[in-house]
Amino acid sequence: MASKPLTAFFILYSFLGYIPSFGVILRTTDKIVWANEFQPVELTCLIESISTNNPRIEWKKIKNGIPSYVYFQNKISEHRAQLIQPANLLILNTSRSDTAEYRCEVAAIDDHKHFDEILISLAVRVKPVVPRCSVPLAVTVGTSSELRCLENEGFPASQYRWFRNNEELPQDPKSSLKFLNSTYTINSDTGSLKFRRVRKEDAGEYFCQAKNEAGNAQCPAQPMEVYDVDIVGIFLKALAGLAGFIIVMFGIYHAHKHGCFSSGKDHTGTNYKLPAQDNGVDYTEADEGHFRHKSSFII
Fold first, then answer.
1. I want to staple 221 with a disulfide (CB 3.0 to 4.6 A). Which of 145, 194, 207, 275 is the partner?
2. 132-227 has which CATH code?
3. Are 57 and 86 in contact (CB under 8 A)?
């Protein structure tokens, strides 16, 4: 029964506009806010109930657990921000560095509940940059091959799509009659395009597109040739053989130049010829019978 007079009291004051405030109360339209880089964004801090005429309003940025002031003592410390009365925060030309949590704090000394705060999470989308694409110049029919695509600047992380001759490759080749016999798989998260067995029909100009909610970017188209035989392998083997032949011939020439292959006689021995005698006597050895007829033995 005691509650009936109290209810009547509030009904009376509601009609007269005299409901007293029991404390400051805040709310926001969005506790999680997304914004595109270089675009403005407004963080709402709405004061639903307050009695104090000049409440103290503060905005703090909390990044990696460390708070810093954005609006303090009626001054903006961030040159790209503005306070929109009574307590909203407008950030102009947002950048990826603005991704953080923001806390709106209102202190009202004349209210029974003299303080309230609200936390808002801001995430700034960043458009992807031109991805780095890797496309093999030539592959052989029946072999496996992989095309790669990657970029690291976009936020949220990019999703990847592949195009051949300006036509998008379906995520599942079995979903299209044109690509029904293709053996490729696409990983839209990593940017990989893998062929289990390359066909002649897979030849063409390929490019990749990286895309997120902020925009998209693509690499220049690059050709991929498909051959029946491994022409590139044959060429490289022939080139290696030619290089080996040149090295061997150079070695032979170098050795020959330094006399390693000379065929002259051995010059370590000495070949002497007996000199001729002035007295005309033959000193060569003679047999015993011949000695008996020499004049030197005559008495």
1. 207
2. 2.60.40.10
3. yes
Could you tell me if 159 and 211 are in contact, meaning their C-beta atoms sit under 8 angstroms apart?
yes
Torsion sign (Cα): 257, 259, 264, 270: positive
Residue 246 predicted with pLDDT over 60:
yes
What is the token pair recorded at 298?
């005559």
- Residue with structure tokens 């914004």? 35
Quick one: DSSP state of residue 152?
S
Q: How far apart are CA 227 and CA 196, in angstroms?
A: 16
Q: Where in the chain are all domains bearing CATH 2.60.40.10? A: 20-125, 132-227
- Coil, helix or strand at residue 18: coil
Q: Say how many residues make up the chain.
A: 299
Instruction: Using alpha carbons, list the distances in angstroms from residue 184 to 12, 144, 161.
Output: 75, 9, 13
CATH topology assigned to domain 20-125 = Immunoglobulin-like (2.60.40)
